[in-house]
Amino acid sequence: MRFDIDRNSLNDLEIFNTQYNSKCIFDFLNNTQTDGGKKLLLEIMTSPSCDTALLNQRTSIIAALSKMEFPFDIKKGEADDIEHYFIIGRNILHTNPVDSLKDYGNYKLRGTKEYYFIVAGLKALIKLLKLFERIISRLEDFSLPESFKEHLADVKRLLNHQLIRKAFAAKKLNPFLVSRLDQFSRKTHKQQLRSFLDFIYQIDVYHSVALLLTKNRWSLPEYSTESHSGLVINDLFHPLIPQAVPNSTALDENTTVIFLTGPNMAGKSSFLKAVGISIYLSHLGFPVPASKMKTQIFDGLITTINLPDNINEGLSHYYNEIKRLKSIVNLLSENKSLFLIFDEMFKGTNLKDALEASKIVISSFSAIKNSKFLVSSHFVELFDDLKVNKTLRFFSFGSSDENPGNYNYKLREGLNGERMGLHILRNEGIIAALQKLGEG
């Protein structure tokens, strides 16, 4: 089941590297040890899902791996050796003694690269199978999805094969054993070993993200079976901000819109992004940056945080906002259950039109029962018009009570109408400098 998220939303949340960001969520999650694992992580992260069964499967696997202490010690070069071995162009080695010795002799006398790659690939494969033998019994102790158990059973059959046991016992791979293993790996059991390597990449990915659970503030999401139950999230923080201040929030079945106010730099945008990142990660079945999260399954996530001007098409920022809003309305008209985030709506037009447009649009949002909206704004003037909507709640960020201008980044219920723009302008000495220039 496809989860709707577009490029603009991925960029807003800094999920992948772009020319505009030096840090991203993908790099933060990527502790994989193999190229195959890294590619699979990218594949998963470009395909979020609203399939509850799949998401629960992933969380159960990650939970199990997070509780295990095992040495997942495979080096990137060794996995590369195995991949290269599987696609090597040389004919499969013959198993009769004469040909085995001949192949080995040619390697010693002529230094044939193909034979070297065969031996290197087999050594890496045997090492990987030995590694897996040490962890497979521990994995069987956990409650895991049937598909994962089937992979484990397939690997056990490989491990119990007579030739693999012989290779495990050998101190060195002699020419006769090399030939037999090559027949086994590239002919009779090629598909099984290919599946084993792909399974290792899965474990590499899940082990990589499971490491997040060893950190104090990460947890696995829980999924509600009720379609409009919304979201509850405790101690949420932005994972790319050092020492980020945690906040808790909820959009329950009775809340459709959170209207967020507060001055610039008080934490609104970071909070919006943190919520968006958590919704996105939860629809991968991955850990989230919060002590607890329970969410309904949404059909998509759309954010409008850093909407650029479209110079190539000659479109203004405001018209770009309108076009994006129209595409969102079209998605909503398909009866999709969406999570939508807007940071300072209609900032591309004049104040009067922005106020009126915001009132109309946000009031309309509050009547849409199957989606959730997180909207930030500086327009505290909207309060009197919006407070009649019982599905809309007001929250804010702002200064600490003791020290105006000193932000504590804590989410509070209610409005905040602080005007800090002029204060910042004055503190930076710009007003004084301009007055001095005028006097000169």
UniProtKB/TrEMBL annotation:
Provide the species name: Hufsiella arboris
Q: Does the keyword Nucleotide-binding apply?
A: yes
Superkingdom, according to UniProt?
Bacteria
- Extent of the signal sequence: none
Q: Where is the DNA mismatch repair proteins mutS family domain?
A: 255-438
| The entry's keywords | ATP-binding, DNA-binding, Nucleotide-binding
Please give the name of this protein. Answer: DNA mismatch repair proteins mutS family domain-containing protein
Species lineage = Bacteria, Pseudomonadati, Bacteroidota, Sphingobacteriia, Sphingobacteriales
- Molecular function (GO) terms listed? ATP binding; ATP-dependent DNA damage sensor activity; mismatched DNA binding
InterPro entries found in the cross-reference section = DNA_mismatch_repair_MutS_C (IPR000432), DNA_mismatch_repair_MutS_core (IPR007696), DNA_mismatch_repair_MutS_sf (IPR036187), MutS (IPR045076), P-loop_NTPase (IPR027417)
From the record, give the transmembrane residue ranges.
none
Q: Which GO terms describe its biological process?
A: mismatch repair
Keyword Ligase carried by entry:
no
